[in-house]
Design brief:
single chain; Elongation Factor Tu (Ef-tu), domain 3; Threonyl-tRNA Synthetase, Chain A, domain 2; Diaminopimelate Epimerase, Chain A, domain 1; 7-stranded antiparallel beta sheet; binds zinc ion
C-alpha cells in the first residue's frame, strides 16, 4: 500500500519518497513510491499534475491501494526522489470539489435528490442529480451555497470506526468495502469521498451554476468555483465589452439594441425581397415575346420571386418559361412553367441537367447542378 500523504495534508506540494518499483508501461514507465502526495484519478476527478525529480508525471492511477506515477523515463528502485505536485491546479480542483460537496449537500437536504455523477478535469466541473431542478431551485441552491461560503464553515476529513460509521448518516455514490473516508462540511453535508479538500468553505470562493440541462431523467449542472468562477466572470466581461463596442451600447443596454438591430435587419430583408420581385417583373415586362422556350436568370431571386416570374413569363413565349436563380458555382434553383405536359418531361429535364424536383403539368420547381450556359442551351433545343 502506498502511504497517501495527500490524505493527511491536502496542501503538501513537495515531498520526498523512495522508489519501490518501476516498470515499462504504455508510452513510458509506471513508478511506485513508498509514499506520495499525488492524488490519483478516481471518483470523477483527474489525477494530479507535477514532477518527480523534475521529470513530468503524465498520469496517476491507484489500484488496490497502490499509487503509480506515469513518467517518460525510468527511475532506479531504492533511489530517493523529490515529488512536486502542481499546487495551483490541485487547489483549483479542491475549490471545485469542495464546492461540489456544498452544492450536493444542499440539493440533497432541499430536494432529497442524489448526486449520481461527477466529473472534474481541466474544463468545467459537471455533476448529475437524480431529479429535475427548476430555475427557482437553481437560484435557491446557488444562494445557499454562497451563504455557506460566507459562513466559512470547517471541512473535515476522517476515517470513522465501523461503529461510528454505522451510526452516521452520509451520502455515498456506491457501496464501499475499504475503509470509508468521510468528508464533512459542517452543517451542510456528510459524504464518503477519497479526494483532498480545502480546510473551510471560505477557501472555495464564489460558487456559480453556469448551466443546467435535463440529463437521464434528472439534471446535469455545470458549476464553477473559486478561480474558475473568477475566470468565467472575466470571460463574460470580455464578451460584454466586445458586444458593447460592436453595438455602441452601454452595459445593460446591449440586449435591447441587438434586438432592435435584428428587427431592422428582418425588415430590410423583407424590403430587399420585395424590391427583387419588382425588379424581376420589370425585367420580364421588357422581354420581347418569342417563339419556343425562354430562359430568364435572376441571380438573387427568392422562391417567391421565381414563381411570380414563371407565372408571368409564360405569356412571353409559346413554349416553356424557365426562371432561374443562383450561380454556376453553387448551382441554380428553377421554376418552369408551360401550358401542359411538364410532369412527363420532369425526369428527362432533371436527368439532363443533374437536377432534382418536380411538380404539376403546368409548373415544376427544383434545382439544377449545371452551368447557366448548359441550362440555357438545353432549353433552346428542348421541345414541349
Ligand atoms: Zn467528493
Amino acid at each position: 500500500m502506498t502511504e497517501k500523504l495527500y490524505d493527511a495534508d491536502a496542501y503538501l506540494w513537495e515531498f520526498s519518497a523512495t522508489v519501490v518499483e518501476c516498470h515499462a508501461a504504455g508510452d513510458g514507465f509506471d513508478v511506485i513510491l513508498d509514499r506520495t502526495a499525488f492524488f490519483p484519478e478516481g471518483g470523477g476527478q483527474a489525477g494530479d499534475e507535477g514532477t518527480l525529480d523534475g521529470i513530468p508525471v503524465t498520469d496517476v492511477q491507484i489500484s488496490q491501494g497502490i499509487v503509480s506515477h506515469r513518467t517518460p523515463s525510468p527511475f532506479s528502485v531504492g533511489t530517493q526522489v523529490t515529488g512536486r505536485v502542481c499546487g495551483e491546479e490541485r487547489f483549483r480542483r479542491m475549490q471545485n470539489h469542495s464546492g461540489e460537496h456544498v452544492v450536493s449537500g444542499i440539493v440533497h437536504s432541499l430536494l432529497d435528490y442524489e448526486n449520481v455523477g461527477f466529473h472534474l478535469g481541466d474544463g468545467a466541473m459537471t455533476m448529475d442529480y437524480s431529479g429535475e431542478l427548476s430555475s427557482e431551485d437553481l437560484r435557491r441552491v446557488e444562494d445557499l451555497a454562497n451563504r455557506a461560503v460566507w459562513e466559512n464553515r470547517p471541512i473535515r476529513c476522517c476515517y470513522p470506526s465501523e461503529d461510528e460509521l454505522a451510526a452516521l448518516s452520509y451520502r455515498s455514490k456506491k457501496e464501499l468495502t475499504e475503509a470509508v473516508r468521510i468528508v464533512t462540511v459542517e452543517g451542510i453535508d456528510t459524504c464518503a469521498c477519497c479526494a483532498p479538500h480545502v480546510r473551510s468553505t471560505g477557501e472555495i470562493g464564489a460558487i456559480v451554476i453556469t448551466d443546467a440541462i435535463r440529463w437521464k431523467g434528472g439534471t446535469r449542472l455545470t458549476v464553477r468555483c473559486g478561480s474558475d468562477a473568477l475566470a468565467e466572470y472575466r470571460a463574460l466581461r470580455e464578451d460584454e465589452k466586445s458586444l458593447s463596442n460592436l453595438f455602441s451600447a452601454p452595459r445593460g443596454q446591449i440586449f435591447p439594441v441587438a434586438e432592435k438591430l435584428q428587427k431592422d435587419y428582418a425588415d430590410l430583408r423583407r424590403a430587399y425581397g420585395r424590391a427583387g420581385k419588382e425588379n424581376a417583373l420589370l425585367r420580364l415586362e421588357a422581354l420581347p415575346a418569342c417563339e419556343g422556350n425562354l430562359c430568364l436568370v435572376l441571380p438573387d431571386a427568392d422562391a417567391d420571386t421565381l414563381r411570380a416570374a414563371a407565372n408571368g413569363g409564360i405569356e412571353k413565349c409559346t413554349g416553356a418559361f424557365v426562371a432561374l436563380s443562383g450561380n454556376d458555382a453553387e448551382g441554380y434553383r428553377y421554376v418552369i412553367s408551360a401550358r401542359g405536359g411538364l410532369r412527363a418531361m420532369t425526369k428527362a429535364i432533371n436527368g439532363a441537367l443533374n437536377g432534382r424536383g418536380g411538380g404539376s403539368d403546368v409548373m415544376i420547381q427544383g434545382s439544377f447542378n449545371a452551368s447557366e450556359q448548359i441550362i440555357c442551351d438545353y432549353f433552346k433545343e428542348f421541345q414541349i
